[in-house]
Amino acid sequence: MGIQNTVMKMFNKSLAFGLVGITVTDRYAGVCPIRGSSMAPTFNPSLESFTDDYVFLEKFCLDRYKFSHGDVVIFSNPTNYKERCVKRIVAMEGDYISNVNGATRVPEGHCWVEGDNSAFSSDSRTYGPIPLGLIRGRVTHVIWPPQRMKKVDRRISQDRLAF
Predict the structure, then answer these.
(1) Residues belonging to the active site
(2) Who wins on pLDDT, 29 or 92?
(3) Chain centroid, CA 18 distance in Å
(4) Is the predicted pLDDT of residue 65 greater than 80, yes or no?
(5) DSSP per residue over 71-110, as a string?
């Protein structure tokens, strides 16, 4: 009877902890690995490194789509919903952005995202403005590896400013 009670208590505590953990990562915050070089040097600056950067992802911004120019966001790829992408917001709804086709106006409910390393980035220059509903959260900090722990700055290169 004693072992059965102990096992049941451990199971109940594990279940409760698991449900709380899932709720927190689904609604409020999480940790995500960043793979690839499209956001170098902000993330994964060295090609020789065998470890990915891990970032803190806050999701409070999703409540009312509170995003700003320069925010780094993780979103579902518009052409493959199972794939997650990380890019920087360059233009918001109503802004005009210059591209190879001239100037594009970002429609309502959308934003224009680009990678910091444009030579290796598939972004809005490829698939156009993305719906805000595809965004899964805003990256605020690099938390791994320890020597790269830092706050992620909101910035936009001067040649990519929306007009």
Answers:
(1) 38, 87
(2) 92
(3) 24
(4) no
(5) -EEEEEETTEEEEEEEEEEEEETT-EEEETTEEEEPPTTE
